[in-house]
Amino acid sequence: MRRPLPLALALLFALPLAARADDWQSLFNGTDLTGWKGRSDLWSVKDGAITGYTTDGKIPGGNSFLVWDGTVGDFELKAKFKIIGGNSGIQYRSKNFGKPEDFHIGGYQADIDGAKRDTYTGITYEERGRGILCNRGTKTFIDEDGTKYEQRIDDPADILKAVKPGEWNEYHITACANHLKQAINGKTTAEIIDWQKDKRAMEGVLALQMHAGMGEMTIQFKDIQLKKLTDCKEVTKESMPIPAEAKKIEAPKPKAKVESK
């Protein structure tokens, strides 16, 4: 039975997700793409920032990614971004689809939207996976069978006011066991408790997206900092019950198989 979260527990889980460990590690030297791999016709360094650019959005093979030469598990990430047109995102705990040199990545994505920023900026999307996991301004509990429970934590329109279109903004992503949190310019945009063990990821690659088919676009990143976390423990239903006011969203039903004749 779902029940309201006691105030004491609510305050407890509003605290940092885990004890911090290690110093912040810079993932970009500000000069070249050392430590990153991607298509040279899409990615370069301009004005001290990683820059993805396409004139028309026609990218053979679909969405392409600049992939960091490392993996992330439990971590915090801070990165400044600026987007003009199109759509992008920061992939984390993700994996390669196909050959690594194809730069096709799937997994959790902190979305960045230059074309429809009122729709996608700040949400959590699972590329090549479960689709939209958490809408802007919500905390989403994903049950073992994929059923989602959405709890409103902030007004999406108010969150959007903190985002500066066409200017530099800062993403702050925290992944601690099955507890994920995303924030832009200090405003929490999305939070997830993921109990779906057969679909979720606890570690994987980090990458930056160039979305195909959206016309001319420029996406830039700089000041990319990573900090590894320790002592992360899985959030259970006992430690963080699904709030009674959370809206239930049924898991999509599998498509019925058509018998061949």
Structural account:
The chain is mostly beta strands and 261 residues long. The chain has a single domain, classed as Exo-inulinase, domain 1 (Jelly Rolls, Sandwich), CATH 2.60.120.560. The chain is 7% helix and 44% strand. The protein contains three helices and 18 strands. The strands form two sheets. Strands 1, 3, 4, 6, 11, 12, 13, 14, 15, 17 and 18 form an eleven-stranded mixed beta sheet that branches. Strands 2-5-16-7-8-9-10 form a seven-stranded antiparallel beta sheet. A hairpin with a 3-residue loop joins strand 9 and strand 10. The chain is globular and about 50 Å long. The N terminus is likely disordered.
What's a concise summary of this model?
The protein contains 3 helices and 18 strands. With 261 residues, the protein is mainly beta.
CATH topology: Jelly Rolls
Please write the CATH class name.
Mainly Beta
Distance between the termini: 46 Å
Number of helices: 3
β content, as a range? 35-45%
- Tally of strands: 18
Order of helices and strands: HEEEEEEEEHEEEEHEEEEEE
Q: Return the structural class.
A: mainly beta
Name the CATH superfamily assignment: Exo-inulinase, domain 1
**Overall 3D geometry?**
globular
Q: Mind telling me which CATH architecture this is?
A: Sandwich
> What is the residue-averaged pLDDT?
90
Unreliable spans: 1-5, 7-21
What is the number of domains?
A: 1
Helical residue percent band: under 10%
Task: Characterize the biggest β-sheet.
Answer: 11 strands, mixed
